[in-house]
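In response to reviewer comment 3 from the previous cycle, which asked for concrete evidence that the modeling workflow produces usable outputs, we include below a single protein chain processed end to end. The sequence was submitted unchanged, and the resulting structure tokens are shown without manual editing.
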Amino acid sequence: MNLNQLTIPVSNIEQSIEFYEKLGLRLIVKDVHYARFECLQGDSTFSIHQAENIPADTGVWIYFEVADVDDKISELLRKGFVIEELPMDKPWLWREARIKDLDNHLLIIFHAGDNRKNPPWRIKE
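The workflow returned the following structure tokens.
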């Protein structure tokens, strides 16, 4: 299997489209209650759909990998994004920063390189 896309609920489709385009995703499908974005690297897509009720704490964490976390966060700060957690190295060998979207979904901007799928503690087959 290959993950095609992730779809999350949003309270305002137009404002969320603007947010995710500003984040760096490319809008490829737009309808009244739905939008789909292309990630500029890789084959994954990301979509949003208009929802009547957004849970206060969805527990959804969305990871977007970039080549340089610090550069991306500097770019987002220049664009006016609020950064929940500035870039830092994590014990699981990833560099991460965290922001929230307009509906409080947690977005992790990270770089893991080979450790994304092959950390030293990976289960041996």
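The chain has two helices and eight strands. We consider this sufficient to address the reviewer's concern, and the full set will be provided in the supplementary archive.
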